[in-house]
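tool_call: predict_structure(chain=1)
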Amino acid sequence: MTKNINANRLSAIIIDDELHGRENLKKIIETYCPEIEVLNIADSAINGKKLVSEHKPDVVFLDINMPVLDG
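tool_result:
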């Protein structure tokens, strides 16, 4: 019997308007949190809302200070 490796992982989406913030957080998660799978990354809250609706992640990493909409 094969076990689904992803069954025990949390799914996540990163939403941040700063490129370095998105990239650094993704690297940190991949390096130190193998139980979290980053499904996608958005560069704005508007795009992030679409991704959250589409993917329904367990966790959202959201910048609380962004233009137009923020966390």
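agent: The mean pLDDT is 89. Proceeding to next step.
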